[in-house]
Structure formats: structure tokens, C-alpha cells
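Deliverable D5.2: sample structural annotation.
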Amino acid sequence: MKVNIKEVKSKRELKAFVHFPNELYKGNPYYVPQIESMDRNTLTPSKNHAFEVCEGKYWLAYDEKGQIVGRIAGIINRRYNEKVGRKICRFGWIDFIDDRQVSEALIHTVEQYAREKGMDEMSGPTGFLEFDAAGVLVDGFDQLPTAYGKYNSPYYEEHLLAMGYGKEADYVEYLVIVPDTIPERYGSIAQLVMEKNHLHEAPIVRRKDVLKYVDGIFKCMNKAYSVIHGFSELTPGQCEDLKNQFFGNVNIDYLSVILDENEEVVAFGICMPSLSKAMQKANGSLFPFGFIHVLHALKHNDTLDTLLIAIDDKYKNKGVNALIFDKVAKGIVKNHIRYVESTRELEQNASVQNLWNRFDRTLHKRARIYQKHLN
């Protein structure tokens, strides 16, 4: 197949770039379409504060008939590269038909972009920030992704391996079955941890009460995530973007904010009702009716997705996980949640996985980040 690679420069081309996977996986029962308007905003410099520390280009692949057969983004996160002392070009938003000529043309285009920018490593799929969808699904093709995950066909890994890419890191996802009764001992453990470490749950009774602690939450996140793969310190603008993304629809039943005796945020956990089925029904658009499915899912659901959790280093391995779990567990019981889905977490992130290690859980999805050194 003759493949034509074209850089995305117009709004029309960006719209086609964002829409392509929704067309590629149309009818696939395990694919969750992303909201296209939100994806376009993420990829638009004037609407995404990540461009304060990042730069990037996007490309589409066309066949002889002018049909789109693939897409890819090339991204350089300057702040992260400075932090780790490496010259890494990220590739992301990668999707393609099962044709080696297509995937090679896409990857080689980003590799050339990386060389022109003075980079000597490739890593991906990742986004601008740690909170963008990342990884190639390598296990769990018969499972529904979370709204913050990403589905792809099994052939993606074969193509990347054939081009010399190897594993850099794995993300895992667990499905946790909530028992009919949560043992009372968890509440007792939480109480002991609070008393021993002079900690307490933030008094949040209404959604607007969360705003008082947002700055502390991001400060805690920046400290706790500093050692996580791919993470660079969030700027105030990036914090504002995340605030709009995650806190607008937060259900305080699934939010835990832990304070020390000085009222400083030292840990937090945020979960959200699953939006996967709602986003399938929305089919990439919130309007005219997609938002109705999302609102219904936020209020009526039997599945909870874990989103963010962070604990200050000073309190790690001191049982603070129990405090977060105790608060969220109350919401789980109150709202009759039957299943908990962990969003993608690094396979070695035991502190998060330990939240659920006493429950019936199954590791049912795995996604992989690949890397390659450029010659």
C-alpha cells in the first residue's frame, strides 16, 4: 500500500485526527469512544496549559484513495526531559489499521521529528502529561476499558516490536468485587491510624467545600508523584485544567482528603462512577443527548473507577491508605456499588494496589509503554 503522511495543520484535519479511532473501532463492543470536543481541546495549544512545558505535532496517514488509515502525535515534554536529564520524544494518540506500511510510516515520521529536535529516545504511547491516556493494551481485549483508559486491537504490539521497540513500563488494572458487608475492622484501623498520626478527614459536606482544599491537593500530588514514570511538576495552569476536568462532577461520597494537625493536605483519593457505558452511548459527542447518558451514569451506577490517589512521603507506609479507603467505602455502601475498577497504575505501585488486596480482585487488563533509542 502506498501511504501518504500529512501533518495536521487545520481545524478540519484536527477534527479528522480525533475522529479516526471512533471510526476504526465502530461497532467494537469493547471500545469506548472519547468525547471528541474534549480531545480536540487537549490537542489545541490555546486550550491546554500543558503546552507551557510541551510542544508537539500530529500526523494522519492516508491510503491511495485518500482514506485515513492511521494517526500519531509526536510530543516533547521539556520539563520532564530536564527533570530526568534525557532527550525523550513521546509518541501518542497512535492508531492504525493492521498494515505494517502504515504503522512504519507513522512511527518513522515521529522518529524523524525527534531527530530534528535533538532527541535521542522514543517513548510511548503517552500524552503531554501523566493524566492523558497512555499505553498499548496487551492483555484484556475482551474487557471494557475505563473512561480514562484506551482500547486497541492486539496487532499494535506486534507492529511496535517489529520496529525495534521494547517494554519500558507496564500499567495494570484490577476489577474488585465489593463484598456484601465491609468488615468493621477497617473503620477501627482507620481510627487508630488517625489518632497515632494526628490526622483527620477534611470536613467536606458539599461539593463547593472541596475548593478550599484544591491547592493543597495539587501540592500533595506534585510531591507524591514526583518519582512516577512520565510525571513532571504541574504548573498553575495545568492544575487549573485538571481542576476543571476532575472536580466539576466530583461526588463527595467518593472523595477523601486527609489533613494533618495544621490543616495541611497530606493525602487524598478521588473515585468516580464509571462512565464507560455512558460514553459508548454518547458515541463521541456530549450533544445533543450524550450529556444525558453521562449525567445518568454519575447518579445511577454499580461500578466505581478509581482516579487519583496520593500520600505525602512523610506518611507513606503508616496506614494512611486505610483512612482513604474508610471514607470511600462509606460511599460505596451508601450507593450500592458492586464493582471497583482501578484505572491504569504502574505495576509496581503497591501502595495503591494495597487498597484492595483483601478483597476479591482480578488483574484483568494490562497496557504497555515502549521505548527505543534512536541511532
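Annotation notes: The mean pLDDT is 91. DSSP finds twelve helices and 14 strands in the chain.
The annotation will be released with the project's public dataset once the embargo ends.
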